[in-house]
Amino acid sequence: MLNVFWNRFKMIPPIVPVSLFGLVFGVNFVLQSQQVPPRNQPIRQPAVKPSINTVAGTGIVEAWRENISVAPLRTGNVKEVLVKQGQKVHKGDLLYTLDTTELDSARQTLTANINAQKANLDRLRHLPRPETLKPLEAAVKEARLTYENAQTQLERYERLSDKRSVSQDEYTQKKYAAALAKASLEKAEAQLKEIRVGSWIYELQQGEAQYRSTQAALREIDTKIMLSQVKAPRDGEVLQINIRPGEGVMETPSTAPMLVGDTALLQVRVDIDEVNASLVQPNLAGVAYLKGDAKRSFPIEFVRIEPYMLPKKNLTGLSTERVDVRVLQMIYRFTKPQFPVYVGQQVDVYLKK
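Given the sequence above, the corresponding structure tokens read:
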């Protein structure tokens, strides 16, 4: 009987089993695709709006009195970083330094110039030197004697009763000799007078101006060297360090080289969408929940409302980030709860109207 069944099965065209298999596979695929997969439950139940009389907002935790971006007041390369993240610092503590090799070299050059200019000013102020006066006084005395001798000889020729006893050429020579001696005397006296007066007032003014200019340049260099030592602007904690020795840093960097904040007391900067801005007012009681955790919350205390509405910034916490929605910012402070809360952490905030 099996032989008969097998013979009949062989008579079926080969395409029929294949078609049946495809039909079964297609029906099974359609049935499976229509099944709704089970929903994944969240690890923590997120916070929900308590009531219709509550205004919701997104907040970010900040250090008390806001985080401070500690940037240098001049552009340069980082020489040394003297603190670590999480380290407590006091106002005036040295945080990091910039390289001052070029400034030190410029300072040495300016110092040498100042010393030379001061020496020149002292020389001008103490002119004339006694050693310079003595030769000039001797020269004047010599010129006077020469002139008196030439004048005496000329007068002797002029007193002759018989002018014919002296040739005209000889008389002319005596006359010119006397005039030349007089001119030499006047020159020597003028030179002595010039030296006795001392330095020319304009030379002194020029020397003093150059001296003051170089002193000002030296003070500028000293100021830049002083600004190369970046210090903590107030007591707090080092929250973030974004620089390393050898890296360049600018006066207005796009990323804060170092963040410092007072973490003894924290605050929350709450963003209220502009459509809900009219619903809030000062002194609203509030509560903050950790992002995505309905079981961890802490009360927050009103501080102030920022008077200027800003574009929303809630992705990285940087104050430079911008999106389309505008928000009203409210500042609330709080005492650290029993569970960890970190600066830069996002929270869900609910304010009771």
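The chain has a mean pLDDT of 84. Try to locate this feature in the token string yourself.
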